[in-house]
Design goal:
The protein is an alpha+beta fold and 398 residues long. The protein has three domains: 284 residues, no CATH class; 52 residues; 42 residues, no CATH class. 40% of the residues lie in helices and 14% in strands. The strands form four sheets. The chain has a three-stranded antiparallel β-sheet with strand order 2-1-11. A hairpin with a 5-residue loop joins β5 and β6. The two termini are 52 Å apart. Pfam families: Phage_portal.
Length: 398
């Protein structure tokens, strides 16, 4: 396990994989030559800090998707039946001593949403399934491409120390799940990257609101000096004194509402809000909607006003599952199943169980009613339409 490597201070280096067949175009995309680390063009740490840890809309969008996806029950099946008990299901249910299934997949989906990449490490893999599964941090992992452009290793860095997972001829110990990126051959595109500008706008708007509240939630004004005949200028000492008194006695939240005493021809001219200031809240809400749009979360579910795309909350929640959660779970579970199948040689499919999704209950009930009312279908055909395996001894003519 990679955590044991950094605790114990080292690990055995695997041998380089032998030459194998590869794409003819692969040598062109070998960035920087064989054996060098191909760095991601985006700083995932900065995006996570500003868009997730420092932005409530991004934080809630990622949490909603990751938690909803991790909570979906999974079914294991092959072409003939569903499995209620199987070693693969036991491994997924208890992947490691520190995490359960929901915790592991929440971390997996979170890493994929924040960086566009997710890495799962298999520990103790012998002739069968691994003993443990661990999700590794995407910001610490780097792809090492070979001479043909395909990854030959993954490099994990912590506090200046590095460990390489070499990809040999057997099943790789690292499962790399990545989002589609049209301009990167090794890394995926995170939704946080196209939402980065909207995140900056939203964060800047929040800072502006905080500064306005520190100033008693009122616009600023101007102090006008008039001399004896309506003209004149303050001396340097007078100007410095005036600035010091304003900063110490009249600026900041603690001085909100304190009356101002002006002398020597000074006059206070308050300034009102401009039309652009009045549209400030609309700009912030528009930025919040863009962040939600990038992640595929209906703004209605995040409490963002001004969005009338869906008729009600239930419809928005159903669209959230259909358009965002289910495609994500189907893609990730299929990738994990194909990776784990390589350890055992089986052909099993790991997929979300749509029958246990509360948001889709109305659709499922309508589908069951339509299929049950189709008298021209046999029982076996009805089960096939509903995605259920055949019963023992059941045929198409039953």
């Amino acid at each position: 396990m990679i955590l044991d490597f950094f605790r114990q201070g080292g690990g055995a280096e695997a041998t380089e994989p032998p030459e194998r067949k590869a794409s003819a175009a692969g040598r062109v995309i070998a960035w920087g030559g064989a054996g060098r680390v191909a760095w991601s063009p985006r700083d995932a740490v900065s995006l996570t800090r500003t868009g997730f840890a420092g932005n409530p809309v991004g934080f809630r969008a990622v949490k909603m998707i990751a938690e909803a996806a991790a909570a979906l029950p999974l079914v294991l099946r092959d072409t003939g039946r569903r499995y209620a008990v199987h070693p693969l299901l036991e491994l997924v249910a208890a992947p490691n001593p520190a995490q359960g299934r929901a915790e592991l997949f929440e971390a997996l989906y979170g890493q994929l949403l924040l960086s566009g990449n997710a890495y799962v490490e298999a520990v103790g893999a012998g002739d069968g399934l691994p003993l443990e599964l661990h999700v590794l941090r995407s910001d610490r992992m780097s792809v090492v491409p070979g001479g043909d452009g395909w990854p030959v290793a993954y490099e994990y860095s912590v506090a200046g120390r590095k460990h390489r997972f070499h990809l040999g001829t057997g099943v790789p110990c690292i499962c790399h799940i990545k989002s589609f990126h049209p301009q990167d051959d090794h890394y995926g595109l995170s939704p946080m990257q196209p939402a980065a500008q909207a995140v900056d706008v939203h964060n800047a708007a929040s800072r502006w609101s905080k500064a306005l509240l520190d100033n008693a939630a009122r616009p600023s004004g101007a102090i006008v000096y008039k001399g004896a005949e309506g003209q004149g200028a303050l001396s340097t000492d007078q100007y410095d004194r005036l600035v010091a008194e304003m900063e110490s006695h009249h600026q900041g939240a603690r001085n909100a509402g304190r009356p101002m005493l002006l002398e020597g021809g000074l006059d206070w001219k308050p300034m009102g809000f401009s039309p652009s200031d009045m549209e400030f809240q609309q700009t912030k809400e528009a930025a919040a909607r863009e962040i939600a749009l990038a992640f595929g979360v209906p703004p209605m579910l995040l409490g963002i006003p001004g969005d009338a795309t869906y008729a009600n909350y239930q419809e928005a929640n159903r669209a959230f599952y259909r358009l965002t959660v289910l495609p994500l779970v189907a893609r990730v579970s299929a990738k994990v199943a194909a990776w784990l199948n390589a350890f055992t040689g089986e052909a099993l499919d790991l997929a979300p169980d749509l029958d246990h999704v509360p948001a889709l209950a109305a659709e499922r009930d309508a589908q069951w009613a339509r299929v049950a009312g189709a008298d021209f279908l046999t029982a076996a055909e009805k089960r096939a339409l509903l995605g259920l395996p055949e019963l023992p001894g059941e045929g198409a003519d039953d």
